[in-house]
Structure formats: structure tokens, C-alpha cells
Amino acid sequence: MASKVKCIGVLTSGGDAPGMNAAIRAVVREALANGVQVKGIRRGYAGLLQEEIVDMDAHSVSDIISRGGTVLQTARCLEFIDPEYQKKGADICRKHGIDAMVVIGGDGSYMGARALSRNGINTIGVPGTIDLDISSTEYTIGFDTAVNTAMEAIDKIRDTSTSHERCSIVEVMGRGAGYIALWCGIANGAEDVLLPEMYDYDEQKLVNHIIESRKKGKQHHLIINAEGIGHSTSMAKRIEAATGIETRATILGHMQRGGSPTAKDRVYASTMGALAVDLLCQGETNRVIGYAHGEFIHTEIEEALEMKKEMDPYQIKICKNLANM
Ligand code: ADP
Ligand code: F6P
Hints:
Elements lengths: L6 E6 L7 H14 L3 E5 L2 H6 L3 E4 L26 H13 L4 E6 L1 H12 L3 E6 L15 H21 L3 E6 L6 H9 L4 E3 L8 H13 L5 E6 L5 H12 L3 E5 L11 H19 L5 E6 L2 E6 H6 L6 H11 L2
Parallel strand pairs: 1-2, 1-4, 4-5, 5-10, 6-8, 6-9, 7-8
Antiparallel strand pairs: 2-3, 10-11
Helix pairs in contact: 1-9, 5-6
The protein binds adenosine-5'-diphosphate and 6-O-phosphono-beta-D-fructofuranose.
Adenosine-5'-diphosphate (ADP) binds next to helix 4.
């Protein structure tokens, strides 16, 4: 049966993430393979409201699969929280002949996607954020690349920290979530990991641990601090004063959001982008793509937004145990 969808729009929203380009490419090429036209909306919902809409063909996504960032660019648009602007956004889609949308972004972007669905534009969300903080999926586009970028940077910090027998606090991104911190904690063998989900703000415990491990012969003390806790520079000063061990803070910052995506991010983003198009062609709307228990899945947006995500307590436990000698 021929698809009733004639034209699909695609936008990226919220913080960019490596792999978003692979998802855009997949949306465009899968739509074209199904005989559906594609329009790209630049600068997220802000660009939609400004009618920054461009026709996309197979060639417009050539040479982007290996590139970080998003060729459509992205934005945070507070206006889109207002129902009046949400309706305006849907009307603009109709004006440009867009009858279905793929929104690539995080939870905030999903709320915009839900608003478009409610205003009559069939919309599917694709999880794009380095933070891994979307409850309805075990994988989000960009996390794998970001965590590998952070891991490589932290390995380098660890080298110099050992040479100088210092304590190093490395702050990683993640907004309110500690997934990048936890993964780096395990991957970099950090002595301490501070996670917003469970930090008790007991700095004396941290100080005692640093002193104890120095006594046991550790030549460095690596602390991964999640952005959600922050204050790494002042923490370093207090720790140095309390332990007498030279302590430096490094905030990795936006380098974690850039760079060429890993194979995993390219393949998963491609699959998710294509699946979003296939669902739209089947007449689906108001759903978000995810990955769980080894399979690509899709969930109703309301349900997805209500879900809660918990960190794996076993991973937290081993993160602590494996770094202690
Ligand atoms: P992310 O999508 O990564 O969670 P944000 O929370 O910054 O990032 O949200 C991205 C954009 O999604 C916002 O700038 C806004 O345009 C849109 N958005 C966020 N919350 C809502 C909402 N409640 N209703 C409609 N749109 C929203
Ligand atoms: O959501 C991705 C993210 O990089 C978070 O980890 C971080 O808190 C935030 O975006 C930073 O946003 P900005 O680019 O506006 O500084």
C-alpha cells in the first residue's frame, strides 16, 4: 500500500550530539526510498517558527555521516513551550506541505514533538543527547562518542596526575544525570566518582579516602565529578587544603559534545532515523524511538515522558570496588 505521507520534515533540537548527522541522513534517504519528499528545518523549533525550511535531497546529506554536530543546526526555543506558538509551528508545517515530522533531541524536544502531534502533524521523536538521560531508552545518540571522548581526555590527565602525584578532579557533562561520570569512572578506573543521583556532599569522606589511598601507595587520585554536582575548582582548593596533596580541577566542557561519531553512534542513529520514517509511513504519530534489551523499540510520548530511569546499582558498586586496592 502506498504511503499517504507526502512530505516529512526533520529538525534537531536541544544540545547537539555526535551522530545527529547520521540520523538526519537516514531520515532523508529512507524517506526518499519510500517515495516521500523531505524538508529540513534549521535551528530546531526556533527555525520552524521563523520558517527556516529547506528542501533536502539525497545529495544534501552526502558526506555528513562522519561529522559531529548537526548540519541542520540546533537551538533552544523557549517560545515553543507556549501552546499558541506550538499551533503556529504546526500551521507553518502545513503551509510548507509538511505532513509529518521527525524531531531529534532529548526529553524537552519530545514535549515539542508531542505538541506538534496534538496539533495534527504526525511526529516521531528520536533520542539525541550525550547525557543518556531519556528514560524510555537504554541508548541515546551521542553518548557513546561523548563518553569515549571524555575517557581519552581523562587518560591523559591521569598520566600527568601520576607523574606529579596529584589528586585530579575531572568534571564531565551530563546536566542532572551522572551517566557520563559513571562510565568514565569505570573506564578510567577513577578512585572516586561523584554522581548527582546519589552524592551525599560528605567531603570529609572524600578527604579521608584520598589520604588512605595515598598511604596505600596510590600515586594519583582521580575523582570524576558530574556536572550536576559541579564546583570542581573550589572543591579542588578545599581538598588540597585538607589533604596537603596538590589538587587540580579540569572541566572538560563542550569538547565532549563534538567530534566524529563512533561506529555505534553512526549505526544506531542511522537505524533510529530510518525507523522513525518507516513508522510515519505506517501512519504512526506521537511516539519516540528507543533501544532496550537488544532491540529498537518505540513508545508513546506520554508514556516515555512519565518513565523513570535508575542507574544500575551493580555498575555503581563495581565502579567503587574495582578502583580500590
Ligand atoms: P533536550 O531536548 O535535549 O531535553 P531542552 O530541554 O533544552 O533539550 O529542550 C529543547 C527544546 O525543546 C526547548 O528549547 C524547547 O524549544 C522545546 N521544549 C522544551 N520543553 C518544552 C515543552 N514543555 N513544550 C514544548 N516544547 C518544549
Ligand atoms: O544536554 C547536553 C548538554 O551538553 C549537557 O550535558 C549540558 O548540561 C548542557 O547540554 C550544556 O548546554 P550549553 O551548550 O547550552 O552550555
